[in-house]
């Protein structure tokens, strides 16, 4: 299944659920009411049956994996979330709340297939948590706040991670607020805010438009993830490595010959030269629609590099933007190294963009960039 099919599958599931209850997703103001209707509604109750009709009772939990949750070990405890009520919890936040504060064991929150309509927050006291989904195309946490509704972009996230040592595997994070146009005020809508140190994401999906992934602060690792958005869809001041990820723009198509810019992949927020932060993209792919920049300098010392990354022709020839502040040209660090594709031609790049040589690129290419030897665990852990 390709990336576009994955997105369409998830969105189709959401829309089908909402259409089935005659609800306009872009207009509703109470997500809790939708969750209640989805989980409590009995479709059979709306049908008219003769008294002698026989409706066999089916236990929806009959096919539930028998080994979930597994028994507790010396290093791991597993909590189970299933919206049909087949295990410990029906909501992800309820499972998070049940985790012991400052627990030294890893708590695996096993989340069954389904779309979980809820806003989730992991506080700083909840350490060593893993979200284990059943596939980025089948398990998703979804909400629809915007900067306007949440009183600030940073608070609009569907999922917020403050607790350190967080891991997510095979799950999607989505903000399905209406897609804004460039320049819209208050329409930013974050799918996830990662504000805890030592967070790793394996095979995860991040779906939104403007400001999809708030890579806020701390050391983070993203492997084989799918990240979708339109404007600044990866932003923040994290120290993060993205490996083998797909970065997909959903900005509106731009007619051939027009020089309109309607999106950007990154907006990194390094404030001073002393901050050890930045985004490194290695062996990634950039595609989709629109005419976009690789990054723009949200803060004066913004730092982003792309290495061995395939770029389609949606990348504007200049490649980058200094946030329309030429004083930042001397302090930002934007680099490219051995990238390919029609969007990777550096001939017309902005003059401050660095064409990195082997020595200059080396610090960004491995997990040593995020000090991974100190904390990053293998996928199987």
Written description of the protein model:
Its main location: secreted. Belongs to the pectinesterase family. It is found in: Secreted, Cell wall. With 381 residues, this protein is mainly beta. It has one domain (73-371): Single-stranded right-handed beta-helix, Pectin lyase-like (Pectate Lyase C-like), CATH 2.160.20. Helices cover 11% and strands 30% of the residues. The protein contains five helices and 27 strands. Strand 1, helix 3 and strand 2 (106-111) form a beta-alpha-beta unit.
How is the topology of this model organized?
Elements: H1 3-20, H2 31-40, E1 76-81, H3 92-98, E2 106-111, E3 114-117, E4 120-122, E5 129-132, E6 139-143, H4 147-150, E7 159-161, E8 167-169, E9 172-175, E10 192-194, E11 199-202, E12 205-207, E13 213-215, E14 219-223, E15 226-229, E16 231-236, E17 239-243, E18 246-250, E19 263-268, E20 278-282, E21 285-289, E22 292-296, E23 303-307, E24 310-311, E25 320-321, E26 333-337, E27 354-355, H5 358-361
Parallel strand pairs: 1-2, 2-5, 3-6, 4-7, 5-8, 6-9, 7-10, 8-11, 9-12, 10-13, 11-14, 12-15, 13-16, 14-17, 15-18, 16-19, 17-20, 18-21, 19-22, 20-23, 21-24, 22-25, 23-26, 26-27
Protein name: Pectinesterase
Pathway: Glycan metabolism; pectin degradation; 2-dehydro-3-deoxy-D-gluconate from pectin: step 1/5
Organism: Dioscorea cayennensis subsp. rotundata
